[in-house]
Amino acid sequence: MPDMVSNLSGGGHLPSRVRDHFRTAEQQRESEMLGMWIFLATEVMFFGALFVAFTVYRTGYPQAFGAGSADMNIVLGSINTAILITSSLTMALAVHASEVGNQRWLQVLLVLTMLLGCVFLAIKGVEYYQHYLDHKMPAVWFEYSGADGSKVQMFFVFYFFMTGLHALHMLVGIGVLLVILGRSLAGSFSAEYHTPVAVAALYWSFVDIIWVFLFAIFYLQGLHVMR
Amino acid sequence: MTTPQAPPAAPSHIDYLSERQGIWPWLLTTDHKRIGLLYTASITGFFFIGGFFALLMRLHLLEPKGALFGLETYNKLFTMHGIIMVWFFLIPSIPGTLGNFLIPMMIGAKDLAFPKLNLASWYVFMTGGIVTLYSMLRGGVDTGWTFYVPFSTTYSTAYVAGAAIGIFIAGFSSIMTGLNFIVTIHRMRAPGMTWFRMPIFLWSMYATSLVLVLATPVLAITLLMVIFERLFRVGIFDPSLGGDPVLFQHMFWFYSHPAVYIMILPAMAVISEIIPTFSRKPIFGYTAVAYSSLGIAVVGFLVWGHHMFVAGLSVYSAMAFSFLSYLVAIPSAIKVFNWTATMVKGSVSWDTPMLYAIGFLGLFTIGGMTGLFLAALGIDVHVTDTYFVVAHFHYIMVGGAVMGYLGGVHYWWPKISGKMYPEGLARLSALIVFIGFNLTFFPQFILGYLGMPRRYAAYPDEFQFLHVLSTAGATILGVGYILPLCYLIWSWKYGKPAGRNPWRATGLEWQTSSPPPSHNFEVTPVCTHPAYDFEGMKEELELA
Ligand SMILES: [Cu+2]
Question: Is the pLDDT of residue A14 over 60?
Fold first, then answer.
């Protein structure tokens, strides 16, 4: 306790990376981690509302949503799932590298994670383009010959809305990792100080987990309906 | 509540107001106190804009056929009044101003956990506000603040998307504020400041923050879907495209009922500080009052269906929502009874903050009790979408939240500005607010019960007397709001110096000078007393 107090009043003998309103480096680390966890809770509510809305309509229109899901490219979707899960692994290894203070490995693994993220987005773009060619892009070009046209279209509205939001989160994640990489190159991190890596990793893994659920509701549902 | 580590330092420090003057040091500040003042200035502006729309409506309703506007204009007036008051005044009111200013000081910290995030939240808020105001200037919105589909997504020709985007943006500032408060209360407390030594203000703000971070994202996504549907003309909620309008209502009220607690819990936070100080007694039933805030936050998430009793809910879910709505009354009543018990046998003084607190107690009780009428399925069907509902939620939001806000502003004004406001004038204007408020809204209970529907621009002749009363009340209320604006600004310059602790209150914020230095305390405070320990701190308080 006494040294906490002197830290607050003086502040001079805290490491320079500790912002001056914190009493200790530990307090700063805990605050930053807790902040990210709470942010992820808001993200759960954000995507959760969409999952609920999707589930309501899926329950209401099982046939139409099955028909929509049958148009998904299960091969590309599966590859993308594997890619994202791998990127979670490289991200976790990056956190480990940061903890042991191995900057070289940290940088390699960050680049690898970002590359995997970019490949995911590229494949996603290919899929979007295929939907466009299939005339399955609501508001741009949508055609469906069966009776349930508006309901199949709704499946695709949710598909583009939710995977689009997810892709946006991926882009933000790649941006965050770029910043982390820059800070590592600038020598900001050490075995003692690496909280931002862990905070970024929490976010990255969360975005990966969202994808696993998206994959399940959009790609897997149609498999047994149509084939 | 605490003893400073060292004797109070000589007044050699510079306070947060006089340090670094000019426009940029204010606009780029990360000091939670300055950000609190930025919020105060902005929400005051929004309050008077929203109030202006309300006044126009009340003037229009002087005549049964409507005195001033066409029907569409009237629709836009009540919509813009609602949107501005809910999202740009009530939601950020106490958290953005007093919450920002006080939370770090009450726990003995130098700042919130994330000062830059705090500043960003103000910019995000202002961006949302400007986008919304711009869409109003371009032609306004006519959907009502509730954005019900399919009118908002398909049929309205007004600037719905613009307003919705503004609210969507402002939502992120709510989330940032809530996140910052939660982390701050968890991690930034001074040595000795345990959870159960915290002033009740902090428990209530903590509960508010939980609602902010968990409910706001649902509103954000719901509005985003409305915007998407409207701009791209695809089916999400529109029944002609297979959508379900009731699903929209579920999602909207999943946020908007808890939003009521975002407005009222902070007012309860303020009241819980004022009443002990002006009764010279610790709050009665500290633990119960602390937990009841969390109880309100949790149960508040389970009652949204009471807004949809006539929207085609099944009988069973309506009964469940009705029962759960009754349940919220329990933690609310715990608070009211404990505040009242705090005053019993206390030496009560009638300074302005206490007048507002007592006004709050009465008006919140009326608002809460009429909420029980509305939670009852049978009565709700009779008064749904009438002035009864309007009166009920104004008793909560204006009689509760705004009274709490004004009480808090007066209570902490000496700390914020370092000056005393003119007490006589302040008491008079508190009285004017109380009278004006009741004259405005009590007749609306009767109007609603007699069948006057809300959002109508015209009404049968026999309702005119009550409508005229209501408009007269609104005018008085307007005077009651303009007076504090004038004398508070006046006192900023000409008021008597307040000194460190003019109310002889126990909170940590009163241990430091008024206005406080940039880092709040000369020395780290260490908390050695329970909250509201007027007995144990007697000597220190007499010194002040
Ligand atoms: Cu409600």
Answer: no
User: In whole angstroms, what separates CA A115 from the centre of its chain?
Assistant: 14
The rounded distance, in Å, linking the Cα atoms of B178 and B195 is 18
* Residues of A with Cβ-Cβ distance to B220 under 8 angstroms: 46
For residue A164, what pLDDT is reported? 96
For position B18, what pLDDT does the model report? 86
> Do the chains contact at B225 and A1, CB–CB below 8 Å?
no
State the distance from the centre of ligand 1 to the C-alpha of B312, rounded, in angstroms.
17
Tokens 């914190």 map to which residue? Answer: A22
- Section A207-222 average pLDDT: 93
Question: A-chain residues within 8 Å CB-CB of B111?
Answer: 21
Q: Tell me which chain B residue has its CA closest to the CA of residue A5.
A: B524
Domain ranges for chain A:
26-225
CA of B118 to the centre of ligand 1 (A): 29
Least confidently predicted of A141-145, A162-166, B173-177, B274-278:
A141-145
Closest CA–CA distance from residue A59 to any residue of chain B (Å): 12
Average pLDDT over residues A186-207: 94
Q: Which of residues 125-144 of A touch B (CB under 8 A)?
A: 138-139
Q: Which of B183, B234, B244 sits opposite A38 (nearest CB)?
A: B183
pLDDT at A5: 38
- pLDDT score recorded for residue A16: 56
* Distance in Å, alpha carbon of A160 to nearest chain B alpha carbon: 11
Q: How far is the CA of B301 from the centre of ligand 1 (A)?
A: 10
What are A136's strand-pairing partners?
A142
Least trusted range by pLDDT, from A58-72, A110-124, B42-56, B104-118: A58-72
Q: Please count the CA atoms within 13 angstroms of the CA of B305 that sit on its side-chain side.
A: 20
Per the CB < 8 A criterion, the answer to whether B327 and B245 are in contact is no
Task: Say yes or no for a CB contact (<8 Å) between B220 and A46.
Answer: yes
Under CATH, which architecture does the B2-7+16-543 domain have? Answer: Up-down Bundle (1.20)
CATH superfamily of A26-225: Cytochrome c oxidase, subunit III, four-helix bundle (1.20.120.80)
CB contact, 8 Å: A59 with chain B? no
Q: Within chain B, which residues score under 50 in pLDDT?
A: 1-11
Q: Is B419 helix (H, G, I), strand (E, B) or coil?
A: strand
DSSP single-letter state for residue B9: P
Q: What pLDDT, on the 0 to 100 scale, is given for residue A147?
A: 80
The residue of chain B nearest to residue A10, with distances taken between CA atoms, is B523
Cis omega (within 30 of 0) for bond into B515: yes
Show me where the domains of chain B are located. 2-7+16-543
- Give me the DSSP letters along A122-134: HHHHHHHHHHHHT
Please report the ipTM that was assigned to this predicted complex. Answer: 0.92
Cα gap B249→B218, rounded to integer Å: 12
Six-digit token pair at B512? 């430091």
Place of tokens 């692994």: A89
Residue B386 vs residues B70, B115, B390: alpha-carbon distances, Å: 21, 44, 7
Structure tokens at B501: 């602790």
The pLDDT of residue A11:
39
In total, chain A counts a number of residues equal to 227
Residues of B in contact with A61 (CB under 8 A): 242
